[in-house]
Amino acid sequence: MTLLFSTKPGRRERHLLRKRNNPLFQETQRQISTADLQEAQRLDHEELADFITEFRKLVHQAVSLQPSEESEVVLKLKESLDKAYEQACGLADDQTETKDAIKKLVAVIMNAVRSGAENDPVALGELQQESTARDAHFELLEHPLIADILYPESVISEEDLVPTLLSSPPEEFASALTLFDTNQLQLLIEGAESYLGEQAGLSDEIANSASERISVMRSLMDDLLSD
Fold first, then answer.
1. pTM for the complete prediction?
2. Rounded distance, CA 62 to CA 108, Å?
3. CA distance 106 to 99
4. Does residue 140 contact residue 175 with C-beta atoms inside 8 Å?
5. What is the pLDDT of residue 36?
């Protein structure tokens, strides 16, 4: 039976696609049944529906903010919007409009916070650093793999992380490595070397590519340790 994949899959369907016919995953994970696909799509759209409900609540909170609103309320809303953006980046369907709306809401809130700190150069500097870091983080989240790794209920299990990284597109792989500190990189390297050594029957091309990825991880770790 022909599998009907989504044009813009959610995180669960996306991970099925990563594993499909991928020799770096265990053989039992490479085959996708119709039932597997339908369940992943069902859960992805269930997550999307829940997100829409919660996002509408956030929008209502944002438009209901008063000029004299307590800073704690404003900052909590900003944090919720940041988390909503992270989640939106991993959802099914095209979330461009939603992400743009979140950015605009965050910008409005940040402008209000800056206005309240206009006589405090230190606070303004910290707010600028936060804004720069947020922009970089949001840009990183445009890679679906990043959104999937960072999602609190990530579909990428600890066992799946190594084969996922070793077979991900080059740009996603490079971006994903920035998420890990030296200790985590060391564990990843050890896990990847062990995992690769256990995989029998890999073609030379795939084995060499995976080995090169491990070398990149090791070089990055060495660079971090030398800083």
1. 0.92
2. 9
3. 11
4. yes
5. 96
